[in-house]
Amino acid sequence: MTCRARPPLTRDSVIAGAIALADAEGIDAVSMRALAARLGVVPMALYKHVGDKEDLLDGMVDQVIDAFSADPEASETAPRPEDWRAAVRTRLLAARATLALHPWARRAIETRVRRTPAVLRHMDALTGLLLAGGLSADLTHHAMHTLGNRIWGFSPELFNDPGALPTSTRSSAPEPEPADYPAIMRVVTDAQQRRPGGSCDEDYEFVFALDLTLDALARLAADGWSSPA
Amino acid sequence: MTCRARPPLTRDSVIAGAIALADAEGIDAVSMRALAARLGVVPMALYKHVGDKEDLLDGMVDQVIDAFSADPEASETAPRPEDWRAAVRTRLLAARATLALHPWARRAIETRVRRTPAVLRHMDALTGLLLAGGLSADLTHHAMHTLGNRIWGFSPELFNDPGALPTSTRSSAPEPEPADYPAIMRVVTDAQQRRPGGSCDEDYEFVFALDLTLDALARLAADGWSSPA
DNA sequence: TTGACGAGGTGTACATCGTACACCTAGGGT
DNA sequence: ACCCTAGGTGTACGATGTACACCTCGTCAA
After folding, report:
1. Which of A210, A96, A109 is nearest to A153 (CA)?
2. How confident is the model at residue A169 (pLDDT cuts 50, 70, 90)?
3. What SS3 state is found at A224?
4. B45 CB closer than 7 A to any strand C atom
5. Which nucleotide has the least CA–C1' distance to B42?
6. Is the model's pLDDT at A167 over the cut of 60?
7. Average confidence score pLDDT of chain A
C-alpha cells in the first residue's frame, strides 16, 4: 500500500531522520516507533540499518559532530602553529555554534559512552593543535582532560536548565528557601543587576572559562612544565 | 501475608533503599518494581513517599550529597579565609571521596535538572568560601561556572568509560582505526609509558585541572579583575 | 462507644517502549 | 531456473512508569 516510491533507507538517512525529529520535537520524541512512522516504515525496519537504539544515538551525535569536524576549512587552514590558542578557541566556538542548532545534543553527548569516528576526529584535531603549538604530549593530555566537555562547545549546566521544568513538578522534597543560601543569593543579585532580567550568559561563561584555561595552559607550557615523577 | 512487621516506609527510607540498590546492582537496576520488591512492598506503595521516579532520583543524589554537605565539621571549621584555595580544594576532594562510594552518582548528577536542598547547600558553601576568600561576587560567579561539574568531585569522562562497554556492542558504525588518529595516539603512547598498563589516572587529572583553575582564579583575584562593561 | 477520616499499603490495568523472531518479496548472480 | 540476500513487514513479548479504585488500620472528636 506504499503507493509512493520511497527511496530506500540507509544508515545515514535513518540517523538524519532521527536528528530532524529530535530538532523538531526534542530528544524524548525519538522513539523507534515515532522515527519509523516519520520515515514511512515499520519500526523493525530500522534495525536493518542501526544495531539498536544506543547505536542510533551514537550515530546522531556522530553526524552532528561531523558538521564541524569533517571540513578542514573550518579552522585548520594551517595557521601559524604558535597561534594554537586562537586555533583551539576558533574550533571550540565552531563546535559551540553547531551544537546550538541541536539543543538535545548537549545531553546526548554527555550520556554517550562510545567514542565514534567523528568524535575521535574532533578530539584528534584538537589534540593536534595543542601538540603543534608546542605543548608536550604529557601536558596535552592533561589539557584535554581539563577542557573536559568544553571541547564540545558547552560547559556543564550549573544552575537550573532554564525552561527544563515545564510541567508542574510534583516532588515531595521541601521547596528550597532562597534565604537559606546567602552566598548564592549574593552572587545572583550581583549578576541580576549586571544583566537585568536574564539568567546566566552562557556564551560569556563559556569563553571566560575557556580563555582562563588556555591562558593557564600557555603559562605552564612556557614554563616547560612536565609531570611529576 | 506480611507476617514480619515491617517498619513503615518514609521518604528517606525509600530513597536510602534506592541508593543501596544502586550501589549493589547499578543504577539501571533501580526500577520502581525492583525497589518495591527490595523493600517488601508493592510498587505503587512507593508513590506515597516520592512523587515519581524523577523525584526519587533527585532524592538519591540529594541524600548522597548530604554526606559531605551537611556536616560543617567537614572542612568549614572557619580556617583563615585567605586560605580559600585550600578550603575549596579540601571540600571538593571530600566530595570526590564520597562520590567514589557511589559510582552511579556521577551520571545521575549530570542528568538531574532540579537543584535540591543538599545540592544548593553544597553550592552555597562553595560560593561562600570563594567570597570569603576575597573574590568579588562577579568573579565568584564565573569561578563557579568554570569549575563546572568539578564542584561535584569529578571531571567529565573524556575517553571511554572503562568497563562501561560490557556486552558485545553491535553498532553498525565502522570500527575506529587507531592509525587514523595520530595526535591521540601520540599522547596515549606517552601516557602509557608514563603509567604502564593503566588508563588515565583520574585522580591526578582531577587535581591537575582543579589546581590549574584555582591558580588562574587566584591570579585574576589578585589583579582585581572584574567583568567588562 | 462510635463514627469519620486520613495515612499508608494493595491490586489491577494501561500505554509505551525496545526488540526478538519468523516471514515475505524483489533483484541479481550463477 | 535456481537460490541467495538485502530490505521491509507483522506479530508478539517483557519491562517499565504510573493512574485509579480500593482496603485497612490507628487516631481522635462527639
Report:
1. A96
2. low
3. coil
4. yes
5. C10
6. no
7. 89
HEC-encoded secondary structure of A63-109:
HHHHHHHCCHHHCCCCCCHHHHHHHHHHHHHHHHHHHHCCCCHHHHH
For residue A174, the 8-state DSSP code is: P
| C-alpha cell belonging to residue A64 | 552532528
**Separation of alpha carbons A13 and B42, rounded Å:** 44
pLDDT tens figures, B38-70: 999 999 999 999 999 999 999 999 999 998 887
| Chain B residues 47-86, Cβ below 7 A from strand D | 47, 52-54
DSSP E strands, A138-216: none
Span A89-99, mean pLDDT?
Answer: 97
Tell if the CB–CB gap between A141 and B187 is shorter than 8 Å: yes
Written as nine digits, the cell of A215 is: 591562558
**Contact (Cβ atoms closer than 8 angstroms) between residue A131 and residue B195:** no
Nucleotide nearest to B46 (CA to C1'): C9
A137-157: pLDDT as tens digits: 999 999 999 999 999 999 988
Residues 73-102 of A with CB under 8 A from B: none
Q: What DSSP letter does each residue of chain B carry, written as one string?
A: ---S--PPP-HHHHHHHHHHHHHHH-GGG--HHHHHHHTTS-GGGGGGTSSSHHHHHHHHHHHHHHHHHT-GGGT-S---GGGHHHHHHHHHHHHHHHHHT-THHHHHHHH--S--HHHHHHHHHHHHHHHHTT--HHHHHHHHHHHGGGGGT-----S--TT---S-----SPPP-GGG-HHHHHHHHHHHHHSTT----HHHHHHHHHHHHHHHHHHHHHTT-----
**Closest chain A residue to B151 measured between Cα atoms?**
A158
Residues in chain A: 229
- Please give the domain boundaries of chain B with CATH numbers for all domains: 1-51 (1.10.10.60), 61-154+185-223 (1.10.357)
